[in-house]
Specification:
globular, disordered N terminus, single chain, alpha+beta
């Protein structure tokens, strides 16, 4: 039997589906759950307000426990952006066209020229910078023989349509990569316009896999346009807590087992599992059997988030998300070999995510890195072509 859907993959599918349901916005259903009409309006309006500029910090902590062993990883992030709302307004017609896409066939309304023109406009609509510091488990680093440092620090910039990256961490592999290098994405768009024909573009849009994914997404949206199914409401609570220092505080709680057991979410997860290549192997359990085993495996499962909204400005300013799961691997193992020998009796997965905005509407500019070197796109393509030729 070649059943290879891992625990983490299954959980990611479930969490992605949760995000589709719990944070449905724009033209989709905006369920109020236990909120008053006034609180519901405040909550969803804040999700939609986009500051013209802001700095931010974020952190993600992941702890995985296998019986008496534990492994932790941390990602720290910081940065900011400055958006030009006048430039963004220039793509409003294009956005309206995308929002009017009600079927896969509607993609035929898109043209290569229209897409490239609007993407080029978007490239000039905002500047941003991002720094990441990633700390991995020592056990994982030991298997990499010192290829990466711990923590691994990454720095990225996007200024005036040019994407910069500090490639110094990769210098351990190739010393010539030490430094900050940039690519003008407008040059990349011009290259695409020269090398890709409208016919080729339409062929890409009509790809069977793309069409199937789009149809599935549209079907999901159609279901969320009306009343939220009662079995999903049983899985999610949304309440307003006491205000803190001028912030409205909203708590969302999700029971993953109840959510996965709902008809809508179960259908989404089954579809995602069935798209896996390994599902066609002889002897592989059905997607429904896998979902049943996953439900049985999740002995404890909850997502709790706290979102803070500035009552004066109406901006969403910070959030805290806690994901706690306890997994009994035996039901899933039974689908494969029926044996749990060598497997942990219990797997725990705890994830903490914290995001906070600061200096909202007060960031003047995002400067390009002073020592950044812009590599001509044609030169980059030439070097990549040369590498491929050598590899052959």
């Amino acid at each position: 039997m070649k059943f290879r859907m891992g625990f983490v993959s299954l959980l990611l599918v479930l969490l992605a589906t949760f995000a589709t349901v719990a944070f449905a916005q724009d033209d989709l259903l905006q369920p109020c759950f236990d909120l008053s009409e006034e609180d519901c309006t405040l909550y969803y309006d804040a999700q939609m307000f986009l500051p013209e500029s802001t700095n931010f910090t974020a952190s993600v902590d992941v702890a995985v426990g296998l019986d008496d062993q534990s492994y932790t990883a941390t990602v720290l992030a910081g940065g900011g952006y400055v958006a030009d709302m006048d430039v963004l307004s220039q793509v409003s017609d294009f956005i309206a066209l995308l929002e009017a896409t009600d079927s896969a066939e509607d993609l035929a309304n898109l043209t290569l020229e229209n897409v490239l023109t609007n993407v080029g406009t978007l490239l000039m609509a905002a500047d941003a910078d991002l720094s990441l510091s990633i700390t991995l488990p020592d056990e994982l680093l030991a298997e990499m023989d010192g290829i990466i440092s711990n923590p691994l620090d990454l720095n990225l910039w996007f200024v005036d349509g040019i994407a910069y990256a500090d490639l110094t961490p990769a210098a351990v592999v190739d010393p010539t990569l030490a430094g900050i290098f940039g690519i003008d994405l407008n040059e990349a768009l011009a290259f695409a316009q020269l090398t890709l024909t409208e016919e080729q573009f339409q062929d890409l849009l009509s790809d069977d896999d793309l069409m199937a994914q789009l149809d599935m997404q549209l079907d999901s949206q159609d279901m969320l346009m009306g009343e939220l199914p009662a079995d999903i409401e049983d899985a999610i609570t949304l309440t307003r807590l006491d205000d803190e220092d001028g912030y409205a505080v909203f708590e969302t709680s999700v029971d993953l087992v109840t959510l996965l057991s709902s008809e809508f979410v179960r259908e989404q997860v089954v579809t995602a599992i069935e798209s896996d290549e390994d599902m066609s192997a002889e002897g592989t359990p059905t997607a429904d059997e896998i979902v049943d085993a996953l439900i049985a495996s999740l002995t404890e499962s909850e997502i709790v988030s706290y979102e803070y909204i500035d009552l004066e400005s109406g901006y969403y300013v910070s959030t805290e998300i806690y994901v706690n799961t306890v997994i009994d691997p035996a039901p899933l193992a039974a689908l494969d070999s029926g044996s749990t020998e060598g497997m942990p009796a219990i797997i725990t997965v705890d994830v903490t995510i914290v995001f906070e905005r600061s200096e909202i509407d007060e960031v003047a500019e995002i400067p390009a890195p002073a020592d950044g070197i812009v590599v001509p796109f044609a030169e980059l393509i030439g070097s990549l072509s040369g590498s491929e030729g050598q590899a052959q």
